Amino acid sequence: MASLKELRARIGSVKSTRKITSAMKMVAAAKLRRAETRAAAARPYADAMRRMLAEVARSMGGEGGQPKLLVGTGGSTTHLLVPMSSDRGLAGAFNSNINRKTRDMILKLQAEGKTVRLLPIGRKTFEYLSRDFSDLIVDHIHMASGKDVSFKVAADLGEKISGMLDRDEFDVCTLVYNRFQNVMSQVPTEMQLIPLALPGNDNQAAGETAAYEFEPDEGALLSRLLPRNLQVQLYATMLETAAGENGARMTAMDSATRNAGKAIDRLTLTYNRTRQTNITNELIEIISGAQAV
Known about the structure:
This protein is of the alpha/beta class. 63% of the residues lie in helices and 11% in strands.
């Protein structure tokens, strides 16, 4: 049985931990509101970009000379995976879910005879993938999420991916990220960036087609819109990651704070019982000694 001194030390240690987890929970909650607002504001813009590109691409039909960002290289041999995690831990299963999904995708593609290349975004997924798949990593980027997500990071990443595509370093590019649903739920999601996965046309399902005239022509529009769309999609997922990270951390720290409180109650009860036992034993010794005299 632990001594009273040891129990007091353990109770003090758990109380200190509870203060830290409680403070982290409040910080994450303060960051979450702004991050959630920015992520929600970016979704309609990103969806509108995809719908607009879908209309422009459909108007071109199967014409040749379409940009690589739209149709890719025409092959599917080499896959570039871009997993996106946070730079810090203490966020529950937020990062491990992305790491597990990415690992499953790698093993599946390799089993199909595909070549896999990795461009991890965020320190946690980079550290995880470096252990088993270091030879597949072509580059990595930190600071993908946080209090202020910069569009410049997404723009630079988009230019890097476009440059790799121009050099035919991959055929298919897929983004893996946590889609923020609410504080309790962040869903690991994969989004194909190249070739661009265009949304369906609801009018076509109803037997209707809309005719558009574009100025400048469709090719000129796509050449300008596709690089911007790649940057916008990356930026939107970075905002989703930032919101999801803060939501997951707030939930994890709330759970840790509650568990610390329960641990303090158990230790305090044990401490009181041990103290009472010691007092009782001392009284018995005194009484026994007095009777012996």
